[in-house]
């Protein structure tokens, strides 16, 4: 994500934390909601406009950028192979870690637990700390060191253990229900086009991580949907997709792939 995009995303985060809509921001700036949306969608904003927005939000630019960094600065954004091995070793390791990463407090980990379960959870907490996944300082303070949205190794321990069931669960829908979305595009792209798409995916992933970080600050309800965000693209050779592509688009010219 470039610097301009980061700044605009930081403004979005501040607006969300203040529960301020684009319409309200436009009203305070003396412009229409459509104009405000265009600023953000087209990423076009003059320095004077930026100054006006900072005045309305009563914030300095440095504060805006710190909003974005605050939740993520102390969290790693990828698991080490050893951390994945530990998490994949036992389902309870994974469950306890992700409960903490999603905001569970110490006491909540032991609700309805008997003595045996309590001792086991305490051992898992110490093991999570020894693998640098959390800091277990006191019974009132559990600090997450790796993001719950951290990247895993393709075909690594977590992938091997959970990908099959996860993929079956993910695709067990026709993507027509509320909050579901699926699009697939196939075709031939130049290296430059692939690079541009990769940058857009990276920018979108940054925005998703920012919003997830912000949600931890706000009152997330237990009945809020647990969302999956999956993005990927890859060359497909000798596959069903290539067969479909050739059928729709015709064979590659001059025998090239």
Task: Please characterize this protein's 3D structure.
The protein has 3 domains: 3-70, 434 Repressor (Amino-terminal Domain) (Orthogonal Bundle); 76-148; 173-255, no CATH class. Strands 1-4 form a two-stranded parallel sheet. The model has no long low-confidence stretch (mean pLDDT 80). The relative contact order is 0.10. The protein is mainly alpha-helical and 257 residues long. The chain has 11 helices and 4 strands, in the order αααααβαααβββααα. The two termini are 31 Å apart. The protein has helices at residues 3-17, 22-29, 33-41, 47-57, 61-70, 81-89, 91-101, 115-130, 157-170, 191-217, 240-249, and strands at 76-78, 134-138, 141-144, 146-151. 54% of the residues lie in helices and 7% in strands. β2 and β3 (141-144) form a beta hairpin.
Order of strands across the widest beta sheet? 1-4
Task: Report Rg.
Answer: 23 Å
**Separation of termini?**
31 Å
Largest sheet: number of strands, sense, barrel closure = 2 strands, parallel
* Beta-strand residue fraction: 5-15%
Write down the domain tally.
Answer: 3
* Low-confidence runs of at least 5 consecutive residues: none
Shape: globular
Kindly report the average pLDDT value. 80
Structural class: mainly alpha
Q: How many β-strand runs? A: 4
How helix-rich are the residues, as a percent range?
40-55%
H-E string: HHHHHEHHHEEEHHH
Secondary-structure blueprint:
Blueprint: H1 3-17, H2 22-29, H3 33-41, H4 47-57, H5 61-70, E1 76-78, H6 81-89, H7 91-101, H8 115-130, E2 134-138, E3 141-144, E4 146-151, H9 157-170, H10 191-217, H11 240-249
Parallel strand pairs: 1-4
Antiparallel strand pairs: 2-3
Helix pairs in contact: 1-5, 1-10, 2-3, 6-7, 6-9, 7-8
């Amino acid at each position: 994500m470039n610097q301009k995009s980061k700044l605009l995303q930081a403004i979005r985060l501040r607006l969300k934390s203040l529960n301020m809509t684009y319409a309200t921001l436009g009203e305070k700036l003396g412009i229409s909601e459509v104009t405000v949306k265009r600023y953000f969608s087209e990423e076009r904003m003059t320095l004077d406009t930026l100054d006006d927005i900072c005045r309305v939000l009563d914030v300095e630019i440095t504060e805006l950028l710190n909003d974005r960094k605050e939740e993520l600065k102390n969290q790693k954004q990828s698991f080490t192979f050893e951390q994945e091995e530990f998490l994949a070793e036992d389902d309870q390791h994974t469950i306890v870690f992700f409960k903490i990463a999603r905001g569970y407090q110490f006491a909540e980990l032991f609700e309805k637990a008997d003595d045996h379960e309590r001792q086991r959870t305490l051992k898992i907490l110490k093991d999570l700390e020894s693998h640098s996944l959390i800091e277990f300082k006191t019974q009132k303070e559990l600090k997450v060191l790796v993001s719950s949205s951290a990247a895993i190794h393709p075909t690594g321990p977590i992938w091997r253990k959970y990908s099959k069931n996860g993929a079956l669960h993910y695709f067990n829908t026709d993507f027509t229900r509320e909050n579901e979305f699926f699009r697939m595009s196939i075709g031939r792209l130049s290296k430059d086009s692939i690079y541009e798409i990769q940058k857009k995916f990276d920018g979108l992933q940054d925005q998703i991580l920012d919003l997830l970080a912000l949600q931890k600050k706000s009152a997330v309800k237990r009945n809020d949907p647990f969302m999956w965000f999956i993005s990927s693209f890859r060359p497909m050779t000798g596959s069903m997709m290539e067969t479909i592509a050739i059928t729709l688009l015709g064979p590659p010219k001059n025998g090239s792939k």
